[in-house]
Amino acid sequence: MISQQIQKYRKEKGLTQKELADLLLVTPQAVSRWEKGDVEPSIDTIKDMSRIFGITIDELLNDGVDNDKNEKGIDEKSVNEIAKKVAEETASQTVKEIQDNPPKQVLTICACCKKPIYESEDIVSEEYYSGRTKSSRFICRKCDNMKKEEARKAQIEHSASQRKKSYIWSAVFAVAILIICVIIASSNKDKGYLIAVAIVLPILTFAFSSCIFLNNNFIGDTFMAIASWGFVKFPGIIFSFDLDGLAFLIVMKILFAILGFLIGLGAVLLALVICMPLSLFVYPFALKKSIKHPELTELC
């Protein structure tokens, strides 16, 4: 049998199954199956093995007997018939393997890793900007998961940075307010209410500033919404194009500027009056959310 011949000549050449497989560009499992007789090698593989072993095809098939007839009376014609049969069986087996496992069609190429994508469920559409132009491209599921994981890590790092800033800068603002209150109280005879303000106001300042830095709550948006009330657009001014008219225009512009500043300042103070006490109740929940769910911190 050819399985015995392959094993015999392989050992004579001092080759392992892996070394023979490497020479034939096949897997060691394929050589093992040939030697066990599970499958027959193709005629091309038989030719390659005969060249590697330094023998003829007839010797590989006939156990080293001459080409005309071996000890069992098999002549050269029979040898050719055997070789033809082996080739037909190998070809039939190859066709069956291709039919059972047809090659997959490449649907697209991943824009990130440049690897082919065979399954539709592995395709992810990603939007990106090229300059100011918004475009879309296809990437594989693996690259999409990697990008999401990188974004999650960046979000966690950003949240930790914002939390650190909230501790430092909120403390600085609170201490500054405390110092101002102490200075005012020291120069005032009626210190009772100023002491109370010096205690409460730094606490409110710390809570309010922390909520702004944490950026995972509604305090910042509420403050900006109320403060925006102070941005008032004043009507145009009708004036005559002479010296008195120009003087009138300048005076009215100055008055409108002062009035606009006062309205804006009033809106900001109103926003602080509303948001600072409210932040005292929001801050504990915002800090807890920043620690347990850092991915919910909004990017600045």
Total beta strands = 4
Give the tally of structural domains: 3
Rg measurement, Å: 43 Å
Q: Tell me, briefly, the overall form.
A: elongated
Helix proportion range? 55-70%
Low-confidence stretches: 64-74
End-to-end separation in angstroms reads 77 Å
Largest sheet: 2 strands, antiparallel
Roughly what fraction of the amino acids lie in strands?
Answer: 5-15%
Strand sequence of the main sheet, in spatial order?
1-2
Structural class: mainly alpha
Integer average pLDDT: 80
Strand and helix order = HHHHHHEEEEHHHH
Secondary structure tally, helices: 10
Structure description:
- This protein is mainly alpha-helical and 300 residues long.
- The chain is built from ten helices and four strands.
- The chain has three domains: 99 residues, 434 Repressor (Amino-terminal Domain), CATH 1.10.260; 33 residues, no CATH class; 149 residues, no CATH class.
- Helices cover 66% and strands 7% of the residues.
- β3 and β4 form a beta hairpin.
- It starts with a helix and ends in an 8-residue tail after the last helix.
- About 4% of the residues have low confidence.
SSE arrangement:
Elements: H1 2-12, H2 17-24, H3 28-36, H4 43-53, H5 57-62, H6 76-100, E1 108-109, E2 116-117, E3 123-130, E4 133-140, H7 141-186, H8 192-214, H9 219-227, H10 243-292
Antiparallel strand pairs: 1-2, 3-4
Helix pairs in contact: 2-3, 7-8, 8-10, 9-10
